[in-house]
Amino acid sequence: MRVAVLGAGLMGSAAAERLASEGFSVIVWSRTRGKAESLAERLGVEAAPSVERALDEAEAAIAFLADDEALISVASQVNRADGLVFVDSSTVTPETASRVGEYLEGRGACYVEAPVLGGPRVVREGRLTVIAAGRGLCKRMAAPLLGALAARVVDAGEDPRVAQALKLAYNQVLISSLALLSEALATARSYGASLDLLESVFEGTALEGLAAKYLRRLAADEWPTSFRLELAAKDLDYARRAAWARGLAAPVTSAAAEVFKLAARWGLGDGDYSRVRFFIEGGGGAKSSQRPG
């Protein structure tokens, strides 16, 4: 299968690498042409100068794009795509997912909304969880592509809005939890408790798994970026917007979104989202001397 990977960020690059290693014929495109060319050279695949060229001979496309604006921009460049399986694995608002799906279906594509759970390392290992929504035929046609990336596919029915609502719901809990864990870590340390002692408190509780995976990541002075903090802020903002669209206040999500947005403005946006700990330990930006770098 010839697959166009649209987007050469952390997730798109990892997906291109995984698909190439699994025997797919891969062509990559990015809004930043140099990123696509560098990735293509590293993987020994083709880089496309435009979305149209990327899709020209592809049987399927998978998009890992930053936000609503990026997905709409890419979709608007698709003229006719008869028979193309278009999989969107970006994190966008439910309304954008629906609008883009309708537009591409009208251009002849078979559209599948398929946001994912997991970072670049999980992509490379083929262990993603995918939340897939679309017509049954389209999901069946996308199965070989998704199967190469995922260990588990959750069928969310036909409405693309449901798939994105589920992804945003997951991120509401995960991203907000990192802010809370950062506050808990700061509080415990301020009273002289060690990280080991804090971890022992979480053992055997409902929060054991979360703490085991993220406490040391938060506590580390450095951590490689697998999910950019500014994108975490965007996801929380999209989650609260999705809630507001249904008449829900979402006060906790809104508060967490503001924390991450302020942390991004504080200079942490390109770092891993666990770097929110620096912002929280800095008194919410009040103690600028604690800003990294």
Kindly list the characteristics that best describe this protein.
13 helices, alpha/beta, single chain, 293 residues, 13% strand, 9-stranded mixed β-sheet
Q: What can you see in these coordinates?
A:
The chain is globular and about 65 Å long. α8 (160-190) crosses α10, α8 packs across α11 and α8 (160-190) packs across α12. The protein has 293 residues and is an alpha/beta fold. The protein starts with a strand and ends in a 12-residue tail after the last helix. Strands 1, 2, 3, 4, 5, 6, 7, 8 and 9 form a 9-stranded mixed sheet that branches. 55% of the residues lie in helices and 13% in strands. The chain has 13 helices and 9 strands.
Task: Provide a quick synopsis of the model.
The chain is of the alpha/beta class and 293 residues long.
Q: Report the mean per-residue pLDDT as an integer.
A: 96
Largest sheet: 9 strands, mixed
Low-pLDDT sequence parts = 286-290
How helical, in percent, are the residues? 55-70%
Number of DSSP E strands: 9
Helix run count: 13
Strand and helix map with partners:
Blueprint: E1 2-6, H1 10-21, E2 25-29, H2 33-43, E3 46-47, H3 51-56, E4 60-63, H4 68-76, E5 85-88, H5 94-106, E6 110-113, E7 116-117, H6 120-124, E8 128-134, H7 136-149, E9 150-155, H8 160-190, H9 195-202, H10 208-219, H11 229-245, H12 251-268, H13 276-281
Parallel strand pairs: 1-2, 1-4, 2-3, 4-5, 5-6, 8-9
Antiparallel strand pairs: 6-8, 7-8
Helix pairs in contact: 4-5, 5-8, 8-10, 8-11, 8-12, 11-12
